[in-house]
Amino acid sequence: MDCLIIGAGPAGLTAAVYLARFRRSVTVIDSGASRAAWIPVSHNVVGFPHGLSGEALLARLREQAAQYGAVLRYGEVTRLAPLRDGGFEAETAEGTVRARRVLLATGGLDVEPDLPSVREAVRRGLVRYCPICDAYEVIGQRVALIAFGRCRIREALLLRAYTADLTVLTLGQTLDMPQHERQALEEAGIRVLDTPVERLAMEGGRIAAWHMRDGSRHAFDTIYSALGTRLRSGLAIGLGAAADEDGALIVDNHQQTSVPGLFAAGDVVRGLSQISVASGQAAVAATHINRSLPFPRARAADDAAEPEGDGS
């Protein structure tokens, strides 16, 4: 085929739409673990003023890609290998697939805090991962940010613009932060609680109170987690693709990795983790993939087809 896309989040499906409309043979293989599926409602997707759930967005994109002939398959690619002709061979449980180009849109998985029923809490919007996406929805609430280990303070300072009641919870772990950054948190009026959590009081399907080991009790309306993301870049790194210290793939202006013919878009790429960014990267990658291959020729039967759109 012309292109194999691994991953069916916003990046992978956007690329599939573009490539299928370029009249390329394209297959999308997806393991069903897109981070976007966990979004209860996103208000950052342009054109949906009342918000849109991640699953609803993915369903629309799947329908759109299939409409133009992209093949969508459930499965997992376990290994990528280069071919002598410049293409790639991908191993799956159902066998091998060969493609002239490969686009990785494998994204990553958020590191989940050790809390009871955390996935249900994410679906209900009680536990969140992206202040850029949805901090506007927690204006004036009592907010806690779970963070420990090597932590950057930018998320806490970002949230501070939306609430005056912000607490950083380390859950009893060590917060690896230089003194000047701790001082910046204090100057911003952000509390840091280093005390371990003894138990959580649940009420009406939500966390009503946090009982700390020192006997104190705290209540929050919304919890953010800043424990990082496990990027799924192993397939590319296994081929020798360059990545940063966090495992994010480094790409050029056309979204091509350091391995010729291997492209990447979305959260697996170094940069801002946003749906709109992922879609934009996918459009750039798909357009360059199309240009990098011999252009297909229209069939004689196409002359009788009704043109779609205005040709622009």
Determine and state the CATH class of the largest domain: Alpha Beta
Overall structural domain count: 2
* Low-pLDDT stretches: none
> What profile does the largest beta sheet have?
5 strands, parallel
Q: How many β-strand runs? A: 20
CATH architecture of the largest domain: 3-Layer(bba) Sandwich
List keywords for this structure.
2 domains, FAD/NAD(P)-binding domain, 5-stranded parallel β-sheet, 8 helices, 312 residues, 20 strands, alpha/beta
Q: What's the short version?
A:
This protein has two domains: 3-109 and 228-304, FAD/NAD(P)-binding domain, CATH 3.50.50.60; 112-225, 3-Layer(bba) Sandwich (FAD/NAD(P)-binding domain). It is built from eight helices and 20 strands. It is elongated.
Give your account of this protein's structure.
With 312 residues, this protein is α/β, with parallel strands linked by helices. The chain has two domains: 3-109 and 228-304, FAD/NAD(P)-binding domain, CATH 3.50.50; 112-225, FAD/NAD(P)-binding domain. It is built from eight helices and 20 strands. It has helices spanning 10-21, 54-67, 118-123, 131-134, 154-160, 179-187, 234-238, 275-292; strands at residues 3-6, 26-30, 71-74, 77-82, 88-92, 95-99, 101-104, 108-110, 127-128, 142-146, 149-150, 165-169, 175-176, 191-193, 197-203, 206-212, 217-218, 222-225, 229-231, 262-264. α1 (10-21) runs parallel beside α2 (54-67) and α1 runs parallel beside α8. The model has no long low-confidence stretch (mean pLDDT 88).
